[in-house]
TrEMBL record:
Coiled coil regions, renumbered to chain: none
Catalytic activity, reaction form: 2 H2O2 = O2 + 2 H2O
Annotated protein name in UniProt: Catalase
EC nos: 1.11.1.6
Amino acid sequence: MASDDLSHDRKQEQLDAYRVDPAGTRLTTDQGVLVDHTDDYLTVGERGPTLLEDFHAREKITRFDHERIPERVVHARGAGAYGFFQAYDTSLAEFTCARFLTDPALRTPVFVRFSTVAGSRGSADTVRDVRGFATKFYTEQGNYDLVANNMPVFFIQDGIKFPDFVHAVKPEPHNEIPQAQSAHDTFWDFVSLQPESLHMVMWLMSDRALPRSYRMMQGFGVHTFRLVNADGRGTFVKFHWKPALGTHSLLWEECQQLAGADPDFNRRDLWEAIESGQYPEWELGVQLVPESDEFAFDFDLLDATKIIPEEQVPVRPVGRLVLDRNPQNFFAETEQVAFHTANIVPGIDFTNDPLLQARNFSYLDTQLIRLGGPNFAQIPVNRPVTPVTNNNRDGYHQTQIPAGRTAYTKNSLGGGCPAIAGDFPEVFKHYQEKVEGHKIRRRAASFQDFYSQATLFWNSMSEVEREHIVDAFRFELGKCADTGVRERVVERLNAVDHGLARLVAQGIGVTPPEQEVTPNHGRSSPALSQLLAPTDSIATRKVAALVADGVDAVGLGRVADALRERGAVVELIGPVDGAVADADGGQVPVDRGINTVASGFFDAVLVPCGPDVVRALSGDGRVARFVNEAFRHGKAIAAFGGGVDVLGAAGLRGVRVAATDETSVVAEHGVVTTAAAAGDLGDDFGAAFASEIALHRAWDRPKLP
């Protein structure tokens, strides 16, 4: 066995030891007693009173009553998967002694949980919200948890305000409305009175809050942490996850549509990708700042509402993360996994970031109540791959059987064990720094710039992204009944950018501000825009091929093969489930009926040729709506032969969609067409369609009337 697979396999073996397969077994009680009947309570006669002595029924119902544990207050709705992390090389060794970051021979097992923040477990995946990106590394030095988000900053600077923020964004207490939304008065009242939240709010109103997929979502450690090398020298660090598929988002209209059509859209996407072998992958990068440069910026490194622009400190790639295995039981693994910002290993340490310091207390406190006591680390998904030997005993849900007489240190009766590690090379040693000062409740003056990075974010957006941000503010504030809240938010936005404030005000019935509060500083960071770094890959992109009886199966197969060779997923959508007849009388299996899907499920649409199929599709209102929505949402659309007529029937007039002869291919505003049918359909048609899909959206497409 290769050495780099040891810990990965060890974690798998550990999990396998706890899995129970009911195949071939007989029903028992929790005590292992065989059960002969489980359909009726024990009673006195057929219609008599029920007997309390029916221990099996009582146990069965009691266990059912306690199946659910308290859901997370935040990040309640999530999805997770196992995988591994592997460093690229040893170049980070001068900064940290964390072996999983420096030894390319190690393949460290991980569990990653993605989540929304505000909603309950029963809410939808596609709400406008921050997304959690929490990674548990089962390293050979102990468990390390990188508890990240898909946005690099947070709403508040100090953790003492976290309960206030969460209470404000959660459903309002008098009526428990709205679910999983920030579009209500209490959240925006909080924002209007807490200007430190404005930078994060800009991210929340952007497309970053509407990820196309967890697999196409960035992750950020948010805080400035500290790497520590073998000599005890520290270096400030910020962590970045970059998806291999690029960073892409849904449109707000799609999110609303998908919340009804498939509220599990993101978790289903993750599950199906892994099941099909299309393993999601991210690159871990770090921004490194020498301690001597701690005060070299125009913001405070300890301020969690600030980023370090990549133009000032580039992101250095250090390794890759691959998710290659789905959990076998959602509750036992995804629901019971427990993350904690204070789970660190030698080579990684904290800073005095006041938000991070509060999280280091809060996470452990949360797990104690949510998972029923102090032994939650013994749950298989939380158990480290390294041996655990300490004097912690008893408590709720103790699953180990500690042996020996002694449970204290120092001892002689137990041979001094477990012994203090002392100078053992793997021992964790806290970073040493001098700390002195008065006990106060006061924020540092270096934390008081609330607007400049919010302005930086706005300046860095493309015109399309700016339009989406303005629309988001108008939707969210339009849901606020209190006019005073709307007015205060516009006042805050006027300190970010005068033009932004006026655009928002005009859409929510507030008088636009006349005077500019602070001139826009004009600085930008191109790395903050999603649209300035498109990918050229269509791997895992989903294409809907609309089919009906009489479809040109040859031409369809040729285009589908061209897309699949490039990694795309092509699904055949028919009038109903089952199969359709092709033009030659054969059968073409349908993947899904059009009544079970929405255009938001897919990244592109293909309409094939065939006189019969064209007549069928052109007369189907569901097809017209499907194509129309895909066009309105900027998605790549392709049609060949008679399929071009379906586009016109769907209302795509005003856009040139008809090829001029039998062989040429026209690509305009993301619509790819040719008059050629199966016999004359060349490879250039599939290649042109793939190129448009890779752009994610045709942002220059004219709007439909």
